[in-house]
Amino acid sequence: MAADLSQLVKAYDVRGVVPDQWDEPLAELFGAAFVQVTDASAIVIGHDMRPSSPGLSRAFARGAAAQGVDVTEIGLCSTDQLYYASGALNLPGAMFTASHNPAQYNGIKMCRAGAAPVGQDTGLAQIRELVEGWTDSGAPAPATQAGTITQRDTLEDYAAHLRSLVDLTSIRPLKVVVDAGNGMGGHTVPTVFAGLPLTVVPMYFELDGTFPNHEANPLDPANIVDLQKRVREESADLGIAFDGDADRCFVVDEQGEPVSPSAITALVASRELAKHGGKGTIIHNLITSWSVPEVVEENGGTPVRTRVGHSFIKAEMARSGAIFGGEHSAHYYFKDFWNADTGMLAALHVLAALGGQEGPLSGLVAQYDRYTGSGEINSTVADQAGRLAAIKAAYEGQEGVELDELDGLTVTSADWWFNVRPSNTEPLLRLNAEARDEATMTKVRDEALAIIRG
């Protein structure tokens, strides 16, 4: 019987528990399938600091090389460093990471040459089909001549590329606390920040895929408590937290208060628009704040609203020629970075903006943070479709209320909006609400939750 990989192959990547759901022999098959689907003659591979990553990565390389494909291994890297290598070398790439998931998980984020995404509709479903077939019939026949496997260090080149995109040479000296969460930020930050007028206070820079201090998911408030405390203790100008594979960054201000990813999206959008002469398209997903399209328009740009998820954002970036895109989850996408997401480049923009003026970060971001949001609230729901239908029935036809179903259900009024989306992988409904004031947001949030939770 062919293996059923439905629990392992997700919408955008491969992710599961090692060795229960996948192991090195399966990784080898994924390597063979990846090169067949991408029709590659050469690929680049990187991995994070998880204990299982080197072995899985090398197995994938063996599977690819057996098909006659030359493999460049860049070793330990952040996900955006792998995207850099894919873009700079113009090769399909594979990154071994499970991002912010617990230590027993691992996964593969794959891209075509130039960091173009590989998702369910762009090759991932075909890769799964091949691997499932081979688990039944045996591995594919090797090529008459195997490819080579060579090593290459891209860290310095990656850092230099990022620094070429943001001018930090004339900023005032800043003190920044960086929480790497024992993830790949501990590997990339020292090189990227080298030579800049920054005093870096490192937290949890030791690479440790067992995450001994806290989960490497800065979107969970529990995981930035240490950073908030340290920023206040150090009287720092700001704090930055990275997730496990360091492709997302989360910012706290000088008082240790979290800065919403929507405010960061708006701030970076205004800087990217200025860089492009006040013209350009900016992508934002439908649960970023109203502040984002407002700031984009005020700065001469064109906001484009999309579904949630990096494959949708990257596709829309390519289609529209957008110069920048941002998500509520602290993923930031740049045209100058092959339309791929890089939290490090967003962090450099924040440092440049803060260091280019005299005020504190809280004052700087206030202009970009205009509304009150609920944050994402998850509810376990057995009948997702039924609950969504109940919400639609409750609000449909109300005066001054608009509904759309671009992604889940969005309900919008003059003073508030909320969105409810089903999870792709779990029996959850995700609620995000925003309003012009706290009282209205609370009322709207609680009304929606009452229907969701029945």
UniProtKB/TrEMBL annotation:
Keyword Transport: no
Residue stretches making up the Alpha-D-phosphohexomutase C-terminal domain: 376-448
Domain of life: Bacteria
UniProt record, GO biological process: carbohydrate metabolic process
TM annotation in the entry: none
GO molecular function terms attached to this record: intramolecular phosphotransferase activity; metal ion binding
Pfam families referenced in this protein's UniProt entry, alphabetically: PGM_PMM_I, PGM_PMM_II, PGM_PMM_III, PGM_PMM_IV
Keyword Phosphoprotein: yes
Cofactor(s) this protein requires: Mg(2+)
InterPro entries: A-D-PHexomutase_a/b/a-I, A-D-PHexomutase_a/b/a-I/II/III, A-D-PHexomutase_a/b/a-II, A-D-PHexomutase_a/b/a-III, A-D-PHexomutase_C, A-D-PHexomutase_C_sf, Alpha-D-phosphohexomutase_SF
Keywords from the UniProt entry: Isomerase, Magnesium, Metal-binding, Phosphoprotein
Domain Alpha-D-phosphohexomutase alpha/beta/alpha: 7-132, 156-256, 263-371
Family, per entry: Belongs to the phosphohexose mutase family.
UniProt protein name: Phosphomannomutase/phosphoglucomutase
Species this chain originates from: Streptomyces cyaneochromogenes
